[in-house]
TrEMBL record:
Cofactor annotation: Mg(2+)
Entry binding sites for Mg(2+): 37, 66
Residue sites binding substrate per the record: 7-12, 67, 146-149, 169, 174-175
GO terms for MF: ITP diphosphatase activity
Family: Belongs to the HAM1 NTPase family.
Protein name (record): dITP/XTP pyrophosphatase
EC number(s) from the headed UniProt entry: 3.6.1.66
Record note on cofactor: Binds 1 Mg(2+) ion per subunit.
Transmembrane segments: none
HAMAP family referenced in this protein's UniProt entry, alphabetically: Non_canon_purine_NTPase
Tagged with keyword Transmembrane helix: no
Pfam (any one): Ham1p_like
Function text: Pyrophosphatase that catalyzes the hydrolysis of nucleoside triphosphates to their monophosphate derivatives, with a high preference for the non-canonical purine nucleotides XTP (xanthosine triphosphate), dITP (deoxyinosine triphosphate) and ITP. Seems to function as a house-cleaning enzyme that removes non-canonical purine nucleotides from the nucleotide pool, thus preventing their incorporation into DNA/RNA and avoiding chromosomal lesions.
């Protein structure tokens, strides 16, 4: 079965390919298809926008992830705005912005949320969600992963997400959980 991976984020592509390896799906790049503007108020809305747009444009099943980091001391921000936090242009600048916002805060608790949606061109949706709780460190550690990974120490771990391999991150992460649920729902299905 051919499934378009509807994301422009190379880190997500890597994690999705890793989590779905061996399922027998052929994962296809989004290519020149444009992703819609993320106008939704929730991860679910934005994931559906991306997955449906890619499914309709390609005529195939399409998979999208919408995700974000919710920081307690910031009232749950940046949340669905995580990719554009502080209007900073890249991961490193956004990490610096987050550290600035949290300066002086003793409550460093945060959680990652991922919503993964599989959409058909006919408009059928399957929705899967995962969460990962942890805390924001005072400075970055590690070179792997993407986004806020170097600042995020998951509960019960001694290494940040950026100090883990893709497989180690998959075993605990928000996206790993959502994709494991999708995988479980499809493993052993004959088709569709
Ligand atoms: P697509 O919409 O093209 O998939 P995006 O990066 O814009 O890519 P989102 O709108 O879902 O995706 O933004 C999610 C942001 O949340 C992402 O850019 C990171 O800054 C952050 N984020 C989500 N999951 C993360 C993870 O596993 N590790 C680190 N940061 C993550």
């Amino acid at each position: 079965k051919q499934v378009v991976v509807a994301t422009g984020n190379a880190g997500k592509v890597r994690e999705i390919a890793d989590a779905l390896a061996g399922l027998g799906w052929v994962l296809m790049p989004l290519g020149p298809l444009p992703l819609p503007e993320e106008t939704g108020a929730t991860y679910e809305d934005n994931a559906a926008l991306k997955a449906c747009a890619a499914a309709v444009a390609s005529g195939r099943l399409a998979l999208a992830d919408d995700s974000g980091l919710e920081v307690e001391a910031l009232g749950g921000q940046p949340g669905v705005y995580s990719a554009r936090f502080g209007n900073r242009p890249n991961d490193q600048e956004r990490n610096l912005f987050l550290l600035e916002k949290l300066r002086g805060h003793t409550n460093r608790r945060a959680k990652f949320v991922s919503v993964v949606i599989l959409a058909s061109p006919e408009g059928q949706l399957e929705t899967y969600r995962g969460e990962l709780r942890g805390q924001i460190l005072e400075g970055p550690r590690g070179e792997n992963g993407f986004g806020y990974d170097p600042l995020f120490l998951p509960d019960g771990q001694t290494r940040t997400l950026a100090e883990m391999t893709v497989a180690e991150k998959r075993a605990i992460s928000h996206r790993g959980q959502a994709l494991a649920a999708l995988r479980a729902a499809h493993q052993g299905r004959m088709s569709a």
